[in-house]
Specification:
single chain; 2 strands; globular; 20 helices; two-stranded antiparallel ribbon; mainly alpha
Length: 672
């Protein structure tokens, strides 16, 4: 009745995961009890869980990313401390089997459930506001996308205490991931969690591409879109093109494991290298799916805190779309050692070097934007400057790895690990933190505390260099990755230093938690009543903080390259706000529990498939199908916002803008 599930599935002989799960359960239980006792359940259900508002969904994506960052970083602490201890006769405290699970979970969580949700969350929140529209193209589908991602994250965490996780590395290469060599449920947890969350990511990509191409404010042509919208478009085009490859690849591996197919086996016509080809045909575009939105964040931050328009806007657009195209022509540099031959290796090596050119264009454009500007070193700008230095180092080591003879020496070494983290942490994660700090006041109506924000930045960037620069040295010394134990005396001091760097990063995360607590505590001191705390340049800053559910009482009419900066400049010159618009009623989508209900059945379906509980598989499929049928036959999909309500909420916005610009009440009313 319960398939492969039994009491033996719980790792009673491994205290570490059980203690960790108990701590998580206590914290989660205490949080739920507090929420219930404080009476917040109806608010959370109405404003977040069933919301189809793109801003709420964006916030939930970012919250999920932060929670999973804590989980993924705990795995990093375990690995680095294990390697610092497991030298010579000392075996450390993680047995090989557990270390392999930690290693695989760390990469999977950080890429799929930290970096991806963080970037999609920022895009969800900001893009419709910057485009001057009221929501994304498909609001309910947006909710489904988030909750499917959360469903995949839940399955990953369930593997901590029920069964096991994959021991294959974060890309699950066959033949190690085939049933013969991984007969447990670890690979199945990996595959079904990523299949479910991958569907959510693909739906989010379709939604955001449609929104950007079809739903811009009047007058906002492509050459007037903010740079973050351009990088979001490129990133989501890559999602739409690349994620079906991942889905198909995992589907073939699932057929191998469940039905005895031979796509990637070593016998009966299978080809293990085809899996590597397919996974990296998705995997290298995935790198740019993560970094392109971060490039957009830094473009907005550098321009705002330099007090200047972005230098070379059109060249930035061309560079962005060039990266989008070229990212599909470099995947084979991940396995130069496969024996494809000099011609193939040479082509992919050259293409990898070429793709560094548009990235270099962006770096120079940011530097020229800063040059001659009135720079304000607020926390978002610190993240941007730290990114530029760190990412350039990571980019240069990437070009080195693009040289096939060098890659033959450095392949599968810790040099590669250092390079990868150099670009993902120094690029994607620093970009996420810059965007989080930059747009936090827009989401919640008060700024984050600067003191703790700067402490977090300095600990993060110092910890990063202390943790990962030694890995470059270790890679050149010949240390390979995925090692649970080693006997080389020269490696040990470098690994101890690297472990110290991880402790510094832990301090940075602690400062971010402290920053959030202090900011909520002192929110009256940090309040943003103008809607424009940074003197911004794009349309998200024209609304109140936080914006109303419909974003704009009247869609703005864009007549400048920097939409809000042009409106603000005209207001300052005329010493009054623009004339009141003609308020009209409009419709907005209603809340829907479709997303969370679908996620419930998706989690049930994934868990049942992992453990071969076939009656539960049928129940999960039936529940998901019934949910969509009920949603399709809903009677009242939208509600009306009256012209009077739109005017009332717009009054608040106009009063905030007038105070910010130093105008009087006459300027607010503007009877002319």
């Amino acid at each position: 009745m319960f398939g492969k599930l039994g009491w033996h599935s719980i790792p009673f002989d491994e205290p570490l995961p059980l203690v960790t799960a108990a701590i998580i359960a206590v914290v989660l239980g205490a949080t739920l009890i507090w929420v219930w006792r404080a009476g917040h359940v109806p608010y959370l259900w109405r404003e977040y869980i069933t919301s189809v508002d793109h801003k709420r969904i964006g916030v939930m994506y970012c919250v999920l990313a932060f929670v999973m960052l804590l989980r993924g970083f705990s795995d990093a602490l375990l690995m680095r401390s294990q390697q610092a201890l497991a030298y010579g006769g000392h075996q450390g405290y993680l047995p090989p089997s557990h270390y392999d699970q930690v290693f695989s979970a760390h990469g999977t969580i950080m890429i799929f459930f930290v970096a991806m949700p963080f970037m999609i969350g920022l895009m969800n929140f900001v893009v419709p506001l910057q485009l001057g529209v009221r929501d994304v193209a498909f609001p309910t589908l947006n909710s489904v996308s988030f909750w499917l991602t959360a469903s995949g994250a839940l399955l990953i965490n369930m593997s901590l205490v029920i069964g096991e996780f994959a021991k294959t590395g974060w890309l699950a290469y066959p033949p190690l991931s085939e049933l013969r060599f991984s007969p447990g449920v670890g690979v199945d947890y990996y595959l079904w969690a990523l299949q479910i969350s991958g569907v959510g990511t693909l739906l989010a990509g379709v939604n955001l591409v449609t929104t950007i191409l079809k739903m811009r404010a009047p007058g906002m042509g492509y050459t007037r879109m903010p740079m973050f919208c351009w990088t979001s478009l490129a990133s989501n085009l890559l999602i739409v093109a690349a994620f079906p490859i991942l889905t198909a690849t995992f589907a073939m591996l699932l057929l191998d494991r469940y039905l005895g197919f031979h796509f990637f086996t070593n016998d009966l016509g299978g080809n293990q290298m085809m899996f590597v080809n397919l996974i990296w045909a998705w995997g290298h575009p995935e790198v740019y799916i993560l970094i392109l939105p971060a490039f957009g964040v830094f473009s907005e931050v550098v321009s705002t805190f330099s007090g200047k328009p972005l230098f070379g806007y059109r060249s930035m657009v061309v560079a962005t779309m060039a990266i989008c195209i070229l990212s599909f022509m470099v995947w084979l540099h991940h396995f130069f050692t496969m024996g494809a031959g000099a011609d193939v290796n040479g082509f992919f090596g050259v293409m990898t070097m070429i793709i560094a050119v548009p990235t270099g264009v962006k770096v120079f454009n940011w530097l020229f934007t800063i040059y001659g500007g009135r720079i304000r070193f607020d926390t978002p700008m610190l993240w941007a400057i730290g990114f530029m230095v760190t990412f350039v180092i990571g980019g240069m080591t990437g070009v080195l790895l693009a040289v096939p003879p060098a890659d033959f020496v450095l392949h599968n070494s810790l040099f590669l690990v250092a390079h990868f983290h150099n670009v993902i942490i120094g690029g994607t994660l620093f970009g996420a933190f810059a965007g989080y700090t930059f747009w936090f006041p827009k989401a919640f109506g008060f700024r984050l505390d600067e003191y703790w924000g700067k402490w977090a930045f300095w600990l993060w960037i110092t910890g990063f260099y202390v943790a990962f620069m030694p890995l470059y040295v270790l890679g050149l010394m010949g240390m390979t990755r995925r090692m649970q134990h080693y006997d080389v005396p020269g490696w040990h001091p470098w690994l101890v230093v690297a472990a110290g760097g991880v402790v510094l990063i832990a301090g940075g995360i602690g400062c971010q938690i402290r920053q959030l607590y202090v900011s909520i505590r002192d929110r009256e001191r940090l309040v943003d009543d103008s809607g424009d705390p940074w003197d911004g340049r794009s349309l998200e800053w024209i609304t109140t903080s936080p914006p109303p559910a419909f974003n704009f009482a009247v869609l703005p009419n864009v007549s400048h390259d920097e939409a809000y900066w042009g409106i603000k400049t005209n207001a300052r010159n005329d010493r009054q706000l623009s004339e009141r618009p003609d308020y009209q009623s409009f419709e907005m989508p209603r809340n829907s529990p479709t997303g969370v209900v679908v996620a419930f059945f998706a989690t049930m379906l994934g868990f049942a498939l992992i453990w071969h509980i076939w009656w539960l598989v049928g129940l999960g499929l039936l529940g998901a199908w019934a949910t969509f049928v009920i949603f399709a036959w809903r009677d009242e999909p939208e509600y009306e916002v009256t012209a009077a309500e739109a005017r009332r909420l717009d009054d608040r916005r106009r009063q905030g803008k007038a105070r910010m610009l130093g105008f009087d009440d006459q300027a607010v009313e503007n009877p002319a």
